[in-house]
Amino acid sequence: MIKVDQDKCIGCGLCVGICPEVFQMNADGKSEVLKQSDSADAQNALASCPVNAISA
Ligand code: SF4
After folding, report:
1. Which atom of ligand 1 is nearest to 11's Cα?
2. CB 12 near ligand 1, within 6 Å
3. Residues 6 or more apart whose Cβ sits within 8 Å of residue 56
4. pLDDT for res 5
5. What are the percentages of helix, strand and coil residues in the chain, rounded to 5?
6. Is any atom of ligand 1 closer than 6 Å to the C-beta of 42?
7. Using a 6 Å cutoff on CB, does residue 46 contact ligand 1?
8. N or C: fewer beta carbons within 10 Å in the chain?
9. Using a 6 Å cutoff on CB, does residue 9 contact ligand 1?
10. Domain locations in the chain?
11. Mean pLDDT of 50-55
12. pTM of the model
């Protein structure tokens, strides 16, 4: 299950840019998971997070 650690996320928006089907920015300016997916884009977003806030 894909999760975003809200304490680690710095709100850079990269994951949302890479995979908007899975990630969206919330009212706190952090990324949150919209829906689960094992697509290549979701994996790319996970791997691209600069602070490793995304886990699966
Ligand atoms: S890439 Fe990482 S730090 Fe940037 S918004 Fe997504 S979860 Fe947060």
Report:
1. 5
2. yes
3. 1, 2, 3, 38, 42, 43, 46
4. 98
5. 25, 20, 55
6. no
7. no
8. N
9. yes
10. 3-55
11. 98
12. 0.95
